Amino acid sequence: MSEKLPKGVATVAQLAEFDTLIDARAPSEFAEDHLPGAISMPVLNDEERARVGTLYKQVSVFEAKKVGAALVAKNVARHIEQHMLDKPKSWRPLLYCWRGGQRSGAFSHILREIGWNAHRIQGGYKVWRRHVVEQLTLLPPQVKFRVVTGATGSGKSRLLEALAARGGQVLHLEELAAHKGSVLGNLPGQPQPAQKGFESQLFAALSALDLTQPVFVEAESRKIGRLQLPDALLDAIRRAPGLRIEASLPARVEFLLRDYDYAIADPAWLVERLDQLKGLQSNETLERWRSLIAERNFPALVEELLTLHYDPLYQRSQTSNFNSYADSVRYTTDQLDAAALDQLAAEILATSA
Question: Is 23 left (phi over 0), alpha (psi -120 to 50) or beta?
Answer without folding.
Answer: beta
